[in-house]
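Hi P.,

Sorry for the delay on this. The queue was packed all week, but I finally got your sequence through. Input first:
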Amino acid sequence: MRRRHLLSLTAMTAAAAGVDTLVQRATATIEDLRNDSSFGNSRELLGRARAVLVVPQLIKGGFIFGAEGGNGVMMVHHRDRDSWSNPAFYGLGAGSFGLQIGLEQAELVMFVMSDRALRALMKNQVKLGVNAGLTVIVVGTAAEAAATTNANVDVIAWARAKGAYAGVTLAGSVIKPDTKAIRAYYGRNLTAEDILLRGAGNPRTDDAHDLRMALSDSEIRSGGRGR
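Then the structure:
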């Protein structure tokens, strides 16, 4: 019994360390966004976004059947308080048939631009695509991003991909809260809505503060400049 308890504690500690690393990597991605011109107008998008979902590593690989997925951190932009929420954790997964040779890794930042997209992401899971009721555009160059500035879209996803397979698509992707990661980070059961909209939960480390600061420093507000 004691051994089982120790194994459980070890597993919980490992899970907590994993989400700590995920928050740190999300912060690094946002800092890349601020400093790398290849992210185009993403700082302006960040200033207008209702929320942001950062997936530091999206992996796609295989030959006959390609699986795509990654773990992400989502934070809501509370404009009335000029602040960002604590992080909630999400998983993104998809499957696509086709001859896909090689392994692709992408850095993905999803800007949630509309209230209906934010509401959808508060549910147990949402599937992206033409039948999901959400307009999603994936961009990977500054020219593509410039065309989205005034577009009436729900989600704009910036993707920087590496590997043999050059394109990134989110069609058919499923996004859902990662309840295990949330419990590991906050030490109790909370919903994404509790954290993002109601301000529940106390982060276990200062990493959440660092991510909030990176977001605040990176955003360019309408008619203004970033911090």
